[in-house]
Amino acid sequence: METVHRMSYRKTLKLICGFAGGSAVLVFAAAAADSRGYFGEQRGEAASRWPKFTVLRAAQPAWTPAKHTPAPTGHAWDFNWDKRDPSVLSNGKKKESATEDPSSEQDNGKPKATRNILLIRHSQYNLSGNSDKERILTPLGREQAELTGQRLAALGLKYDVLIHSSMARATETAHIISKHLPGVDLVSCDLLREGAPIEPVPPVTHWKPDAVYHEDGARIEAAFRRYIHRADPKQKEDSYEIIVCHANVIRYFVCRALQFPPEGWLRMGLNNGSITWLTIRPSGRVALRTLGDAGFMPPDKLTRT
């Protein structure tokens, strides 16, 4: 009878461990088995039981809150990352006047609005084109742009401007999207063209545009400084701006805005027509609301070319 109980318990123990997959469950079950004498000892043989249980306990890592609390890494948040922090921007050149209140002047120079920047990756395009003009959207790419435009319209936001890269695939994507956003101005910008912003880490062996990192990187960084920053103090209401550009540009922007190492830009992937949403608070805080959101597209419409 005792043998039957042991076999039954071992089967139960094996089943539990199989489902849980955790060593903590094993220790708990072993302790219960040991207390019932299922390891072959009688209940009174406490001295011989504990060494076996101690071996199982020794296999478990010691847990203390201090050892399992992640330690901060990297640098502290730089609130003047965009060089627009009012307390630093003045550079000690505050007006000294008996008729002016310095505190009031400083308050008037503080941003009060939040900027929302929606970065859109262009839709699927013709990869076999020999020049930029030939790399136009595919039929599927035009469908994707329509879906992105519908999604942006459905959000019900008051968009201030739609800026796009001057490359053919981004320009065409922007024009299709704009049909769903009547009254929103279209602006083309060469700074937003695709390129290699910085040598990625870890490196890739199949793609090493060493000669263009210097040129492209400076241009894309210039685009970041032009478009990604806190609101001007004169801006009274929150703004919503759309930028249609390219995967490399968007990924670099995200890393820079979040103060992540910019060389990590290639670790992220973005679907065609996806939406990446950055929010920049008046204080200089930045939040990533969405990264490469394409959930509004049917699965058979998703691509990443």
Automatic annotation (TrEMBL):
<keyword id="KW-1210">Necrosis</keyword>
<keyword id="KW-1000">Mitochondrion outer membrane</keyword>
<comment type="similarity">
    <text>Belongs to the phosphoglycerate mutase family. BPG-dependent PGAM subfamily.</text>
</comment>
<dbReference type="GO" id="GO:0005741">
    <property type="term" value="C:mitochondrial outer membrane"/>
</dbReference>
<dbReference type="InterPro" id="IPR029033">
    <property type="entry name" value="His_PPase_superfam"/>
</dbReference>
<dbReference type="GO" id="GO:0004722">
    <property type="term" value="F:protein serine/threonine phosphatase activity"/>
</dbReference>
<dbReference type="Pfam" id="PF00300">
    <property type="entry name" value="His_Phos_1"/>
</dbReference>
<dbReference type="GO" id="GO:0090141">
    <property type="term" value="P:positive regulation of mitochondrial fission"/>
</dbReference>
<keyword id="KW-0496">Mitochondrion</keyword>
<dbReference type="InterPro" id="IPR013078">
    <property type="entry name" value="His_Pase_superF_clade-1"/>
</dbReference>
<keyword id="KW-0472">Membrane</keyword>
<dbReference type="GO" id="GO:0012501">
    <property type="term" value="P:programmed cell death"/>
</dbReference>
<feature type="region of interest" description="Disordered">
    <location>
        <begin position="88"/>
        <end position="113"/>
    </location>
</feature>
<dbReference type="InterPro" id="IPR051021">
    <property type="entry name" value="Mito_Ser/Thr_phosphatase"/>
</dbReference>
<protein>
    <recommendedName>
        <fullName>Serine/threonine-protein phosphatase PGAM5, mitochondrial</fullName>
        <ecNumber>3.1.3.16</ecNumber>
    </recommendedName>
</protein>
<keyword id="KW-0378">Hydrolase</keyword>
